[in-house]
Write a structure and sequence with these properties.
Length: about 280
């Protein structure tokens, strides 16, 4: 057993003496994908050295960065306890975060006004339909990351612990949602809401997705320059083939399959090694 979800089980496993590195993972479904047959990003990172890496994975499908990093929120309080307190904390060797995917996609596209209705603005194309509400949301997400990093910088047990995150991958909007085998439980998270906004052209949908992730990357890389021991891995193009999303790497509209997660994990580890933030 190299990965657990409970701090008490984590302590018991560590005290058994089988492992040499402690990894904390927090985030969304990319590190906690619940469907059978898919080895998510957390599992892929752990498999690089499952005999030595003990992972405490406290992520949950559907979690948003706005909740995880909320000031005085229960998740930030839990993170502070894990990083700072002598009684309940741990001195981790690495912290991996996968957050903001759910802040961007889903009904928020409509309900939070991230994308204009094409029917009302026929002269605009693709990313031109993204609104100030979308960019304001990204600014708040980045502030949340900064809040976490400030907390890390003041955490007695983890002041020098590397923090690594990523910015998701370009994908092709498709109506392929949550499913187990042929049974489909929803129509997805992006295409269905863009179509609701009158955006039916596939190239236009893809242009919007690209700018969503590009804008997230730009802001996160700027944040990276302000904090030591913090790395933002550019995973936007990892799952492309000849410049377009390779659907053989995807399980559904927004989640890679095992092959896709494995490819992403290799890129993350490669960049972390180059930055001197991953242990051999």
């Amino acid at each position: 057993m190299g990965q657990v979800n409970d701090i008490y089980e984590f302590v018991d496993e560590w005290q058994a003496g089988h492992y040499s590195k402690k990894i904390l993972i927090e985030g969304d479904s990319w590190v906690s994908h619940p469907f059978p047959g898919v080895s998510n990003l957390s599992s892929q990172l752990e498999q690089f050295n499952s005999n030595e890496y003990l992972v405490l994975n406290i992520s949950e499908p559907g979690d948003e960065a706005s909740s995880i990093f909320k000031a005085r929120g229960k998740q930030m309080k839990r993170l502070k306890k894990l990083l700072s307190t002598e009684q309940w904390g741990e001195d981790f060797d690495l912290i991996f975060l996968s957050a903001a995917g759910n802040d961007i996609v889903g009904p928020e596209i409509i309900e939070c006004g991230y994308v204009l209705n094409k029917r009302h603005f026929p002269g605009l194309f693709g990313k031109e339909l993204l609104t100030t509400s979308f960019y304001s949301m990204l600014s708040e997400v980045v502030k949340g990351y900064a809040r976490f990093l400030d907390m890390r910088n003041n955490a007695i047990l983890n002041i020098d612990t590397p923090v690594i995150t990523h910015v998701y991958s370009y994908l092709r909007p498709r109506e392929v949602g949550t499913h187990i085998g042929p049974a489909m439980f929803n129509k997805g998270w992006i295409k269905v809401y863009l179509r609701h906004q009158g955006i039916n052209d596939e190239d236009e949908q893809y242009d919007i997705v690209q700018e969503m992730l590009d804008a997230f990357y730009r802001r996160m890389k700027k944040l990276e320059s302000s904090y030591p021991m913090f790395l933002v891995v550019d995973t936007r193009k990892v799952l492309l083939k000849q410049g377009i999303p390779d659907l053989t790497y995807w399980f559904d509209e927004i989640h890679p399959n095992t092959r896709g997660f494995k490819k992403l994990a290799k890129q993350i580890r490669k960049e972390a090694l180059n930055a001197g933030l991953w242990f051999l």
